[in-house]
Amino acid sequence: MRVLVVDDHPVVRAGLSGLLAQAGFTVVGEAADAAQALEVAAKTKPELAVVDVALPGVSGLELCRRFRRRFPGMKVIILSMFDEPEWRAEAARAGASAYLLKDLPAEELLASLRRVAQGENLLPPAGPSLPLTEREREVVRLLAQGKRTPEIAELLCRSVTTVRAHKVSAMRKLGVHSTRELVQAAVRLGLVPSLSVSEP
Asked: Which parts of the chain have pLDDT scores under 50?
């Protein structure tokens, strides 16, 4: 199977490419971010992409969605350091065939890749959207843009107390404990494109 490896760390890319080549996969390209990955995929037509969830700029989950739209026959495996049920669910909704942890033993990783190559889907069916309301997502997006709570309240025509309640609710749902962690989680999930936040 023809494979594209997408990770922003050169050492990780090289190691994974070498492991795949030794196991009999044909690595047709590597990429460090979403834009490069889409360009390489258009040229090399891989059958499988192995994608880091936490890419700079456009997240691995959003890249998966774009792959599935532009190359519907391509299978996508998401690699992550984070064993989060919500992220697995979001990977399924994005069209990924598997969500694998980076600390898996090599033989387990390769076994999962072979199963996906043979047509298996290792993710459960996609359920409802992430457990954030649209208003909670909007608050998180504004936090990621560097807005402080009073500014967000003014922009959304809501009270400061209401905005704080939305933020606290989103933090609870995503299992984080600070504004920075909340935005970082949202970036990795593809809810927001970039990180620029200070604690309000």
From this structure: 195-200
Question: Where in the sequence of the chain do the CATH 1.10.10.10 domains occur?
Answer: 134-188
Fold adopted by 134-188:
Arc Repressor Mutant, subunit A (1.10.10)
CA distance 93 to 91: 5
pTM here is 0.67
CATH 3.40.50.300 fits 2-117, yes or no: no
Q: Which residue has the tokens 């309640």?
A: 165
pLDDT of residue 128: 52
> Under 8 Å CB-to-CB from 144, ≥6 apart: which residues?
183, 186, 187, 192, 193, 194, 195, 196, 197
> For the chain, what's the residue count?
200
DSSP 124: P
